[in-house]
Design goal:
Shape: elongated
Number of strands: 4
Number of domains: 2
CATH architecture of the largest domain: Up-down Bundle
Strand content: 5-15%
CATH topology of the largest domain: Alpha-lytic protease prodomain-like
Number of helices: 8
CATH class of the largest domain: Mainly Alpha
Subcellular location: Cell membrane
Structural class: alpha+beta
Radius of gyration: 25 Å
Strand order of the largest sheet: 3-2-1-4
Order of helices and strands: HHHHHHHEEHEE
Family: Belongs to the cation diffusion facilitator (CDF) transporter (TC 2.A.4) family.
Organism: Amorphus orientalis
GO molecular function, one term: ferrous iron transmembrane transporter activity
Largest sheet: 4 strands, mixed
Helix content: 55-70%
Membrane topology: Multi-pass membrane protein
C-alpha cells in the first residue's frame, strides 16, 4: 500500500471516531448546532472513503485504455466531496430552521463542549497532516480532504464559542442561528472545492509563477539548442504534463538533439516532481519570433 493510500485509510478511521464523539456530544446537549457539526462528520466519512477509492484508482499504472494513467480520478473524488458538502449544508439548514421556530434548551453544555473540543483537536492535527502531505505528493484528493477537515475545525470552533455563549446568556435562539451560519460556511467550502476540481478536469494550466520557473529551467539547460516555443502545460492529479517545441540547428545529428532533450527532461523533472515531458524537435527554419532563446 502506497503512502497516499495509507493516509486515505487513516482518514476514514479518524472520520468515524470524530463523528462518534460529536454525535455523543449532541446526545448529551441536544444542541442543533452540534448536530449540524456531527452531520458534517458523516460527510467526512463518505468523502474520506471516496478519496481512498480515488487514490487507489489514480495509483494504477497506465494501460491500453488509459495511456496517460488514471490520475484524474482524484479530481472526480474532489467533485463528489464538494457535492456531499453541499448536501450536508442543506441538511443542516433544514434542522436549524426547525429549531429556530421551536428552540430547545441545551443540557450539560460543559461535558458536551469538552467532547466536541477533543474531536476538533483531532481534526485540526489531521487536517495539517493531509494538506502538507497532499501538497508534497501533489495529491488533489488529500489536499481536498485536508481543506474539508480544516473547514470542519473552523466551524466546530464557532459552535463551541456560540454554545458557550448561549449557555451563559440563556439565549436559546443562538443555537439554531449558529447552525445556520455553519451551513453557510460549509456551502461556501463545497463550492470552492467543486470549482477547483472542475478546473483540474478541464486541463487547467500550471500557475503563472510555475510556468515562469519552467521557462527558466528550459533556457538554463538547453545549451546546444536555439530556442523554445509553444510551451503548454496541464495538471492531472499528481502529474504535470509539459510539452514544447525545441528548435535546433538543422544539421545537428539525431543523437546530439536527443542528448539535449534528455538533459532538459531531467532538469524539468527535478524541478517539477511527477512531470511528464514531451519535446518536439524542429530545425531552425521553424523558429518563431515569439520563441524564447535558450542558453548556449
Amino acid at each position: 500500500m502506497t503512502k497516499t493510500l495509507k493516509l486515505g485509510a487513516i482518514s476514514i478511521a479518524i472520520a468515524i471516531v470524530v463523528f462518534a464523539l460529536k454525535y455523543a456530544a449532541y446526545r448529551l446537549t441536544g444542541s442543533v448546532a452540534i448536530l449540524s457539526d456531527a452531520l458534517e462528520s458523516i460527510v467526512n466519512i463518505a468523502a474520506a472513503f471516496a478519496a481512498f477509492v480515488a487514490l487507489r484508482v489514480s495509483s494504477l499504472p497506465a494501460d491500453d485504455n488509459h495511456p496517460f494513467g488514471h490520475s484524474k480520478a482524484e479530481y472526480l473524488s474532489a467533485v463528489v466531496e464538494g457535492v456531499l458538502i453541499v448536501v450536508a449544508a442543506i441538511a443542516i439548514a433544514h434542522e436549524s430552521y426547525k429549531d429556530l421556530v421551536d428552540p430547545r434548551p441545551i443540557t450539560t453544555p460543559v461535558i458536551g463542549l469538552a467532547v466536541v473540543g477533543v474531536a476538533t483537536a483531532i481534526n485540526a492535527v489531521w487536517a495539517v497532516v493531509l494538506i502538507r502531505a497532499g501538497r508534497r505528493m501533489r495529491s488533489m484528493a488529500l489536499v481536498a480532504d485536508g481543506r474539508h477537515l480544516y473547514t470542519d475545525v473552523v466551524t466546530s470552533g464557532g459552535v463551541i464559542a456560540g454554545i458557550a455563549l448561549a449557555a451563559v446568556t440563556g439565549w436559546q435562539i443562538l443555537d439554531p442561528l449558529l447552525a445556520i451560519v455553519v451551513a453557510m460556511n460549509i456551502l461556501w467550502s463545497g463550492w470552492r472545492l467543486i470549482r477547483e476540481s472542475v478546473a483540474g478536469l478541464m486541463d487547467e494550466a500550471v500557475s503563472p509563477a510555475l510556468l515562469d520557473e519552467i521557462k527558466a529551467v528550459i533556457t538554463e539547460n538547453g545549451g546546444g539548442a536555439i530556442q523554445m516555443h509553444d510551451l503548454r502545460t496541464r495538471h492531472a492529479g499528481h502529474r504535470t504534463f509539459i510539452e514544447f517545441h525545441l528548435v535546433v540547428d538543422g544539421g545537428m545529428t539525431v543523437s546530439a538533439s536527443h542528448a539535449i532533450c534528455d538533459r532538459l527532461e531531467a532538469a524539468i523533472r527535478s524541478h517539477v516532481p511527477g512531470a511528464v515531458v514531451t519535446i518536439h524537435v524542429e530545425p531552425e527554419t521553424k523558429a518563431k519570433s515569439s520563441g524564447v532563446p535558450v542558453s548556449e
